[in-house]
Amino acid sequence: MNIVPSLLHFADGNAVNTPEDWKNRREELLDLLRREEYGYAPEPCKVTAEVVSRDAKCAGGSAILEKVLLTYHAPKGDHTVPMHFFVPVDGKKHPLILLINFRPDPYDMYCPTEEILDNGFAFAQICYKDITSDDPDFTNGLAGCFDRPTDGTGWGKISLWAYALHGAIGYLQTREEVDAANVAVAGHSRLGKTAMWCAAQDERIRFALINGSGCGGTALEQTKHENAETYAYIHTNFYYWFCENHHKYETETVSTVFDQHMALACIAPRYACVGCAKDDLWADPWSEKICCAAAAPAWELFGLVGFDGDDAPASVGTFCHGGHIAYHLRDGIHFFSRRDWLPYMEHIKNNLYTKIL
User: Fold this and answer.
1) pLDDT in tens, 2-20
2) CATH H superfamily, domain 19-40+96-350
3) Using CA atoms in the order 329, 330, 334, 340, what is the torsion angle rounded to 10 degrees?
4) How much is the pLDDT for 231?
5) Cβ proximity of 231 and 242 under 8 Å
């Protein structure tokens, strides 16, 4: 594995030796990543919720589906985001998966909703474009409700989408049907990047389900393989996902400053699940596996198994699920598949009652 910036040294060179040290190092890393990659988000705003419809017999009568309007009361006005919330009808508390998705439909090709419910989960979905548009416009939706700094550190769209998820989690944890200690956030592709960054910052999230996230997600930038997405491509086509300071890494090396193992490690000592597909070369599944290995020392500080795999290329059917960072490689293309959801749900269920240090 190529040398990546050290997780276990502070910026001043001092070693990170203890869990208490890691708490301070994590804050240092989050500040670095906000300044150089994702941008700074505002302080949390008040979020209120209104249930506007309820189907008590959805999913063949096994679940309740509510449409909930989340209103973010921001400094420059209010913005409302619709959310679909499913819960089994058994009257119990359930671990929750919150999916940020590409489409607003409650039943979608990226989520086997009934199977998620049948596995004992409550399930919520938000469409990312209901938060703000996927383009350089920072005046619409929730983006238009805040002033954005112009010093290069203002939030990109990934940070903005993650901000909305933080507010949704605050509401969902108040629901009596939800086991507030077992909340997962999930996303695919650019929304996999969003799920990772959301979980890195928000310690209320116990599990991060990060699917096909690639560049700016869980793929190390300095270990890119043939046909993988790069910062240069992103900055030509999707520069607004990141803060303006990040644009300099089109030409400057990132490896001496930060890399994506640092973002993944900020989830420690909680749980992260990374999923990849063999033919999704754009997301660079090998670099994602290397990233998992490089992030593992953060968990090891706590005496935990970080990643039980290695940094060699994976074969189809690889499941490294023995540590706090789970990784799998399936066959196929860039997609959020049932074959991704099943190992994610298995990993959550296997770790519901373990203690977070």
Assistant:
1) 578 999 999 999 999 999 9
2) Alpha/Beta hydrolase fold, catalytic domain (3.40.50.1820)
3) -90
4) 87
5) no
